[in-house]
Amino acid sequence: MQDRPYRRLLVAAVGCLVACLAGCTATVQGPNAVDPAPGPSAQAATVPVASVRVLQLNLCNSGIAGCYTGRSTAAAAAAIRAQVPDVVTLNEVCDDDMPALERALAGVVPGGAAVSRFQAARNGRTGEPYRCRNGRQYGIGIVSRWPSVPGSVAGGGIYPAQDLDDPEERAWLCVDAAASPAVAVCTTHLAYTKREVAGAQCRYLFGTVIAGIRARDGAAPVVLGGDLNLGSGDSPDLQACLPPGSALVDDGGPQHVVGTPEFVVDAFETIDLRGTTDHPGLLVTLGPRPVG
């Protein structure tokens, strides 16, 4: 169920475009930045985009795995208060972790309000939601300072491709956030036991789920944070499932933040969670890709 520890401090960024136009420059702050994938389509470049500050967290909070400490939710709440993200994407959480993290974000963002969504993984042996040791549902979540779009059909589900030897069936979750302009936010935690399964899940996520969101909303911009388990940004397995021109940052391990081609990476850093989980936090600011 849990991934092996990743403690490297190296951070790689893919998909960051530096536009040398008069008075307009996009920059990346961090130890490593590599050339972007092929550029976005003309349609993507014309879609309105606002900056989005994303905090990706894997809390290892099931209570089952060896990386569990019982302290990661409090550390996550402290990181949220310190970093003030627009959205928080969460992996390996229990559903009763969500209220505390929602309160932490609400306490520091303009307007003092936040919303959250949770999607349970599924137990492949019982067909029921996967459970944490405390009996609560286990899975992934999103906390956002922006409310959900009324009437939105974005939601979550279980991937059709799974490792049949692993009882935890992996899930995805997306929400339409009423930012200005609107943006869809997604999270996932792909299989770690078999790379080919993680690759199939990634292709389904971007080729079916996210492609469907963009087709429905007229190529709405999408931001994803998650534990993709497909290597760093230059991994062929990862690149094979991403849209060309995607903005991409990793934590030097399995966690990534991805933006559809309307975005570039403006800044990123890892956040030390002080041993409360086996993953650092990954904080990324995505901004609009310059046109020209």
Structural features:
disordered N terminus, globular, 6-stranded mixed sheet, Deoxyribonuclease I, Chain A, alpha+beta, 292 residues
Q: Which helices and strands appear, and what pairs or packs with what?
A:
Blueprint lengths: L11 E3 L27 H5 L5 E7 L13 H12 L3 E8 L3 H9 L8 E6 L1 E2 L14 E7 L11 E3 L9 E2 L1 E7 L5 E7 L5 H22 L5 E6 L8 H4 L7 E4 L4 E5 L3 E9 L9 E8 L4
Parallel strand pairs: 2-3, 10-11
Antiparallel strand pairs: 1-12, 2-15, 3-6, 4-6, 5-8, 7-9, 9-10, 11-13, 12-13, 14-15
Helix pairs in contact: 2-3
GO molecular function: endonuclease activity
Keywords: Endonuclease, Hydrolase, Nuclease, Signal
InterPro entries: Endo/exonu/phosph_ase_sf, Endo/exonuclease/phosphatase
Label the structural class.
alpha+beta
Question: Strands of the biggest beta sheet: in what spatial order?
Answer: 1-12-13-11-10-9-7
Q: Give the number of helices.
A: 5
Low-confidence stretches: 2-43
What is the CATH fold-level name? Deoxyribonuclease I, Chain A
CATH architecture: 4-Layer Sandwich
Strand content: 25-35%
Radius of gyration: 18 Å
**Helical amount among residues, as a percent range?**
10-25%
Count of the domains: 1
Please give the largest β-sheet. 7 strands, mixed
Oligomeric state of the chains? Answer: single chain
Chain-averaged pLDDT: 86
CATH evolutionary superfamily = Endonuclease/exonuclease/phosphatase
Gross morphology is globular
Protein name: Endonuclease/exonuclease/phosphatase family protein
Domain Endonuclease/exonuclease/phosphatase: 72-246
GO molecular function: endonuclease activity
Organism: Pseudonocardia charpentierae
